[in-house]
Amino acid sequence: MSIDTQPDAGASSLARQVLAQEEQAGKRDIVDDPATAGVPELTETDDQMQLSEVVRVGGAGTLGTLFALNLVDEFDRAAFGVLGPDIQASLGLSDATLAFTGVLGGFVVVLAAIPIGHLGDRMSRTRLIGFLSLVWAGFALLTGLVQSAFQLGVARVLTGVGKSNEGPLHKPVLADQYPIAGRARVFALHSAASPAGNVLAPILAGGIAVAVGGAAGWRWAFVVAAVPGALAGLVALGLRDPARGQNEARALDVSEAAMGGEPNVPLGAAFARLKRVDTFRYALAGLGALGFGLFTAPIFVNLVLERTYGLDAGGRGVVGSIVALGSLIGALVGGRVGDQLLQHSPEKAMQRAALAVGLMGPTMALSVAMPNATLHTVVAFCSSAMISAAFVPVTAVFSAAIPARLRSVGFALVGVYLSLIGGIGGAIVGGMLSSSFGPRTTLIILVPPTTIVGGFILNLGSKVVRKDIALAQADLREAQAAAERRARGDECPLLEVRGLEFSYGSVQVLFDVDFEVRRGEVLALLGTNGAGKSTVLRCVSGLSLPDRGVIRLNGDDVTLAAATYRVRRGIVQMQGGKAVFPGLTVRENLEVGCQVLDDEAAASSAIDEVLELFPKLRERLDQRAGSLSGGEQQMVALAKALLLDPELLIIDELSLGLAPVVVGEILEVLQKLRERGVTMIIVEQSVNVALAIADRAIFMEKGQVRFAGPAAELRERDDLVRAVFLGKEGG
Fold first, then answer.
1. Which of 232, 471, 485, 574 has the most CB atoms around its CB within 10 Å?
2. Using alpha carbons only, what angle is made at residue 580 by residues 575 and 585, rounded to the nearest 5 degrees?
3. Cβ contacts of residue 473 below 8 Å, gap of 6+?
């Protein structure tokens, strides 16, 4: 995949200005905020912010609580890995069954993470964290009570449901709670809970199993883990949920008013927007490859420790703790170095992370090839430090490159690729390999190639990091500009379209489209076939979602809002062609169009009102719509649109296939609507028809706006009109 990362490739005009600032400044360093490439407004004080000051500004409570929750989560997972051989012997599990059960909880975490992330972008994240943590604690306790493989699987599934909050909720909360200058270090501290749990869990879990003794010794480790998890969950319920994107807003001097007014984003729209962030797509693909070998590795490593090196639960616990200490050190180093790199070169942060990921696999394979447990532990320590150091800067880059209001869904998708695509696939392949060749050979075969591929893909993503950060920044600046216009009391256009871009697959069809529609105005949208006119309308009405850009209605951002939400807000589109149900009567078509109205009386009144505009339709109420003439069907379609009392009426191909007499009748109706103050956008091939009703016109060619101005002025532009509409002006 080749992606051009120059400032004029795939970036809005405002994003190109941001990148140009950087070029003009001699490629100056990115000051403080990875989301503000080339922005000089941030102060030198921010750049020198100490970690203690970062924590003081955001408060220690949130970081401490989320750290504790992550710690006990990891205790549960690590304990399962260390005690895997004991669980296997107690319940009579095969290697493949043990491996699959071990990742089953992670599989459920991923499945639950998507809806949890969706909820997290809509409601209080801290309350969700607290509730789900209590769920986790209850089901972690049940793990210690199971008596069969089936019960163990059920317990791990239910534990995964409770644990699903960590991925999509913790890091978005931290990103919004703590200043950007220390974001990587805050992420590192939070991430350090995982290796800290891995340091403590093997010792505690193995120690508990040995102390209790017998076949049931392993069960008490899970009982112990449930208590602190429940306590931390109760504390999380009382935490304040920070405003989404507040730190980016402060860094760019964007007001809270600019960040507000956004409707809830449908899940499909969130996916569509996130997949257009190139950095994010590369990172997901790289992490998916990495997870293929990474997630099942701990289970097979512990089998190697038992079968090859002859270690019991206590010995495996000591080795696991030492190796996890490498992860702890790696996370802290990754946070420190990550903040420094992100301030100066976010692409280098990704490149360093990619290198660490690529080296981690061969190092892990080398560790299990060592002749004794001591050498294995030393090499595994280094491998663990590498991967932990890599994850912190990658996470910080995520938070800078994706929209703040989509962070929860974004981090949930990270879990999908890392755990679901990678982890489950690795468990299946690894389990089959282990049954045939043993766990040591499995690790040597499986882990190195998957991490090398993952590192290679992450390195490709480094080439687009700066562009995506600039685009995220441009969105915030545009929001601030709109807020400033409102604050000055400037007249707010009914519709604003800024920097709109859209692609069908890999083919981009809209490029940086800008225009606005004033209240009560009729705007003609003209252009050649394939110019992108209908695509613009679909983006405005919510039938298609743009790759980039902003769409505002009455000053409110509706870019990712559902089409149904936009209809309720007054955006109604009448499709070109036969936009009727041919098998229904005219009356039934109108009644269908009234489904969104509150009651029958309102629907009846609305139908009577539109029939006043179209007296011909009153005579044909009981006639099937499919038997009407083309012009009469167009009248039914327009009548259905008017039933919704549009604030902005969008008409695509008004005169398509109609006789001039019929077009004249429809134009008379539109003139009446114009006199009533209805705002309209009309796409029309006939210049004469369009300019007969329009106040202003926009001419598009090859997905770009070539002209925007008074309609009469367009008529005088022979270079635009004559070449395109020659022979089509009589319609």
1. 471
2. 160
3. 15, 18, 35, 36, 37, 39, 248, 252
